[in-house]
Write a structure and sequence with these properties.
about 425 residues, alpha/beta, Aspartate Aminotransferase, domain 2, 15 helices, 15 strands, globular, binds pyridoxal-5'-phosphate
Length: about 425
């Protein structure tokens, strides 16, 4: 370990001072396990960062990536294309809710979010409503870290240092309430929180609002579920006032809820949807925005002469190697029935998670599909206990994500029941420690 010079890499979303004192490094991964450079086994209870539902080191994906590099390693997609991006877009259109079938590619969830915002603006402008420039989001929301996503952010730490550069976004209330603690499934009450959107339309003028972004399940903040009927009500209000509804499915996409997308799981179809992470099983950075057919058509119809319809795109949009990795990942999900597996494993996972409810330090447990969170009672300062527990868990052989005092667990869909039990046992052991 001493051989690694750690001075130069500025780690993202990391306390770099603390990290250098106790580096927590993964050197290898396979299935649902990581190994440190010293050979210690660490169970992966977070699918990396919600990225790897098929487990690590999938040979099929590695082979597809290798073959693609040797056949066509790179092409721009500005006025050029490679065949496999069309194949991938078609496969995604088949998986998505009907009508969401025009696909724009990027390399990260943050890029997908900012692309979706720009598509909304371009659409309204194309239909003569260019004054719709404001967005609505929600407290506690996470929509990535580019400037659009930072503006949408409802997690205060992600905005505070950058407030000078954020644009006009109005926030609805989040949907968590104390009475939901330890409940299973979607909360029965709280659908009326969607009426915040109507209030905002009245206060700011609906004609100034381009769209409303929500994570169907708020993931990064610690798995907050939509109350029953809430997403339906947002859909109805968005329709009433001519707003676009955008689901950010960067975490919930590709089976995490037990359906291909949360849109299908909850029976509400947005106008645009963002996705990333599991699109390539985490192997190659890639994201996408799915857009309703007529939204793309409106933008296309408004273009004049030989100019592009949308002045937006990335050097790595639809990177051929990322497309190959995505196609191989979608094959695995289909051929091994992994979304169905997620649905079948979910009750086992959620039961195991809820078995932790009587431990000290546990304030709440939430979950849906194959994502869940254990909310700890706060320590001396918010987030301190979560960060301590995350470090202790690593020492004890478990990787998960901590946001503040929420421990977020999102195992791969290929996790065996015995491995799931081991993950929960490590959690139980650490949460039971007297010195927390
Ligand atoms: C809902 C949501 N949107 C956007 C993002 C940003 O994705 P990325 O980190 O790939 O930019 C994330 C990341 O966790 C996310 O959860």
């Amino acid at each position: 370990m001493n051989a690694i010079n750690m001075e130069h890499h500025w780690l993202p979303f990391t306390n770099n001072r603390m990290f250098r004192e106790e580096p927590q490094i993964f050197a290898r991964a396979e299935g649902v396990r990581y190994w440190t450079p010293e050979g210690q086994e660490i169970m992966d209870a977070a699918s990396g960062l919600f990225c790897c539902p098929a487990g690590h080191a999938r040979r099929e994906i590695a082979d597809a990536i290798h073959a693609q590099v040797m056949e066509l390693d790179y092409t721009t997609h500005f006025q050029r294309a490679a065949p496999n991006s069309f194949r991938l877009a078609t496969r995604l259109a088949e998986l998505l809710p009907a009508g969401l079938n025009r696909i724009f590619f990027g390399s990260s969830g943050s890029e997908a979010v900012d692309s979706a915002m720009k598509i909304c603006l371009a659409y309204h402008r194309a239909r003569g409503q260019g004054q719709r420039t404001r967005f609505v989001s929600r407290n506690w929301a996470y929509h990535g870290v580019n400037l659009g996503g930072t503006s949408l952010a409802g997690m205060v730490n992600n905005r505070r240092d950058f407030s000078g550069a954020t644009s006009d976004v109005v926030h609805m209330r989040h949907t968590w309430s104390d009475e939901q603690r330890f409940s299973l499934g979607q909360p029965e009450t709280g659908a009326d929180l969607a009426d915040d959107l109507e209030e905002i339309c009245k206060t700011y003028g609906a004609e100034t609002i381009a769209g409303v972004f929500v994570e169907p399940i708020a993931g990064s903040v610690g798995v907050i579920l939509p109350p029953q009927g809430y997403l339906q009500r947002l859909r109805a209000i968005a329709d009433k006032y001519g707003l676009l509804l955008i689901f950010d499915e960067v975490i919930t996409g590709f089976g995490r809820t037990g359906s291909a997308f949360a849109a299908q799981e909850f029976g509400v179809t947005p106008d645009l949807m963002t996705m990333a992470k599991a699109l390539t099983n985490g192997t190659v950075p890639m994201s996408a925005v799915a857009v309703r057919t007529d939204i793309q058509q409106t933008v296309i119809d408004a273009a004049e002469g030989d100019r592009p319809e949308l002045f937006h795109g990335y050097t790595y949009s639809a990177h051929p190697v990322a497309c190959a990795a995505a196609l191989a990942s979608l094959d695995i999900y289909r051929d091994h029935g992994l979304f169905e597996r997620a649905k079948a494993l979910s009750p086992v996972f959620l039961d195991a998670l809820h078995s932790l409810r009587n431990l000290p330090h546990v304030f709440d447990i939430r979950g849906y599909g194959m994502m869940g969170a254990v909310q700890l009672t706060p320590g001396a300062k918010p987030g301190m206990k979560g960060s301590l527990v995350q470090r202790l868990l690593f020492r004890e052989g478990l990787h998960l994500k901590a946001t503040g005092d929420a421990l977020i667990i999102a195992p791969a869909f290929v996790t065996g029941e015995d491995d799931l039990a081991r993950m929960i046992e490590i959690l139980r052991r650490v949460l039971g420690r007297a010195d927390l």
